[in-house]
Amino acid sequence: MPLKLVRDRKNPDDGLWYVRGTVRGRRIEESTGTRERKRSEEFKARREAELLDEAIHGRASVATFAHACASYLEFGGEGRFMTPILRHFGQTKLTKIDQVAIDACAKALYPNGKPSTLTRQVYTPVSAVMQHAAARGMCIPITIERPSQPKGKTRWLTVSEAERLAIACSPHLRPVVLLMLYTGARVSEALYLDWAQVNLEAGNVVYLDTKNGEDRGVPLHPAVVAALARSNRREGPVFLNHKGAAYEEKDGEGGQIKTAFRGATRRACLGKWVDTKKKDKAGKTVKRWITDVTPHTCRHTWATWHYAAHRDIRQLMELGGWKQISMVQRYTHVNVSNHAPSIAALPSLGDIWGSEEPTPAISQPEQKVG
């Protein structure tokens, strides 16, 4: 029985049209999502053609990104960056989504996006949906190349620099910085921390639904316990901004403390003033503060300190929430002073400067002629 348009028998006043019938042995009863007869007819024709294609050529010939995305989310997939992608691809068949299509999607959605942004907000979500779809026979597996990532920054603070930074922080910012320095928290993990995640008696904190999608527990350093204990609150957000309000949850990291943190780096002399081409009203050259220390530097610092103290890369990965060893290998190379004893243990050449006489020239062996 071919598909036909009908009203909902259980709710006739609803007004929506439904398609009902059987195509190649498959029983269908679906809403068209519209009360307009013309649009409902178009939906019926399109849906009937899809069902015929699926019956003849298989499900992979008709599955769309919207179908795959709905299934992916239904099975617990991450939907954080999915809305703009879904608007872009929508009813595009999965067979039409390849590397070129994904590159075009990234360019259309984030024309000025950095490689890290494009990877996080386009390539990774699309890849997750496509892998989900392939595992369920909606499409064939495809390999998706991601944009080349620039070399990660490994700027970290010495103990002296960290101490200066902490002292230079505003009162509301200082405990946030201490938490990041001693637990490796990302900025968002620190700013949105709730007291329910903190156990001062046991001395630990749990970061929920982190960047890699998993919860992560980290012991608290005594300095952090002391800093948090100064608060007279034990419910709701742990940290409040300079106005006494909770930090708003946003996609970007660092923006909400960027100004305060930059001011702290200036007071701590962790950077330098440079001349600009601008002049003020008095005709003096305007200077600009340049620093390579950002809020994320605190995480780099924690990782560097931790590896230098324990030399345990697996433990560092677990506590920091990294899944790939390549992400933490850079922290094993920056603090070379820890290798000084191994270099000093190499055999000595003895007193090679005991004589002030010129070193005699080393004669070359005579070459035979003929």
Structure description:
- The protein has helices spanning 37-57, 65-74, 82-89, 99-109, 115-135, 159-168, 174-183, 187-191, 222-229, 258-267, 297-310, 313-320, 340-344, and strands at 4-7, 17-23, 26-31, 198-199, 204-207, 216-219, 272-279, 285-290.
- With 370 residues, it is an alpha+beta fold.
- Strand 2 (17-23) and strand 3 (26-31) form a beta hairpin.
- Helix 4 (99-109) crosses helix 5 (115-135) and helix 7 runs antiparallel to helix 9 (222-229).
- The chain is elongated.
CATH topology of the largest domain: hpI Integrase, Chain A
Structural class: alpha+beta
Q: Strand tally, please?
A: 8
CATH H-level superfamily of the largest domain: Intergrase catalytic core
Largest sheet: 3 strands, antiparallel
Provide the spatial order of strands within the biggest beta sheet: 1-2-3
Strand content: 5-15%
Terminal CA distance: 105 Å
Query: Uncertain regions: pLDDT < 50 for 5+ in a row?
Result: none
Order of helices and strands: EEEHHHHHHHHEEEHHEEHHH
The number of helical elements comes to 13
Radius of gyration over C-alpha positions, nearest whole angstrom: 31 Å
Helix content: 25-40%
